User: Fold this.
Amino acid sequence: MSLFSRIFSALFRRAPRYQVSAYRTVYTALVSALTREGVNVGGTAGYPRVEVNSIREQERLDKEGALRELTVSIDSISDRSMDQAMTMNEDNLKLLTKYELNVGEGWKCLGVIPTQLRDLVETTDSKKILYRLIQDYSIFMELVKTDGPDEGSGSGSGSGSGSGAGA
Amino acid sequence: MATLGNNRRVYIVTGSGSLTYTWLTGEQTNSFNRTGEALEYSDKSTVWSQFLSGKKGATAEVTVYADDSNTQQKAVLKALHDGSTVKVFIGTLTTGSSPVPSEGDLFEAIVTAIGDTNDNGSVATRSMSLTATGAVTHTPSL
Assistant:
């Protein structure tokens, strides 16, 4: 390898696959999947509103770090009624579980599984009553294989003793 | 020096002469167990039991996330169905474009069990049990 090639590859070396977080991909895909007419999504002011409340990326499931589990909370907030919050939550469930997540390049979504659901009624500083339903999901993601060797994957060819002497 | 379990992986070995080591994709855990029989030859000359070292062997267990499109997992499944053997390396490889074993054990094995676990809300897993047939080669050599 020439000196130029070494400098080039050192400068533009990709991060090892296992160091890449799924957070950004999942957040972007969630906001995109949940966006629809009549509901503010992704932190936009006003009600009714759906917010990605929290995303927690769990420990990597396999040794390479290609499989990820993320725990996500999605908040359906209405300033009218709990019934409206429930309708929004049901629409969220349909959008996420029917079509899964269109996560784009680099990742594949293995599944979106609804887990816990809880409600919350609160009063804002301006005395407005908010009706909230918070639905948790488990989302499973897999890094899509790319060409070329990955750091940390350890596959490749080489010579070695195939039939060594026994102990 | 201590080693993280993440680094000691199961590789399916193919080729002859120049070997190719391909990671068993989706590996979650593995365990490798070496055994040696104890042949007793005690007599009344002493109250203590006495033994000779007998046959040696090894078994391995590996759990992976099930992936039926993966070549290595299919090779192990095929070996169970066909009653054939697979060549396996468990350990660490050198880094670089042509990795070779740096520490671990190479052996030919029969597949004695493959169990799939399909839990609600989890990624499906597959556990595989291997029993070494013939010699186990340790790297670096002992």
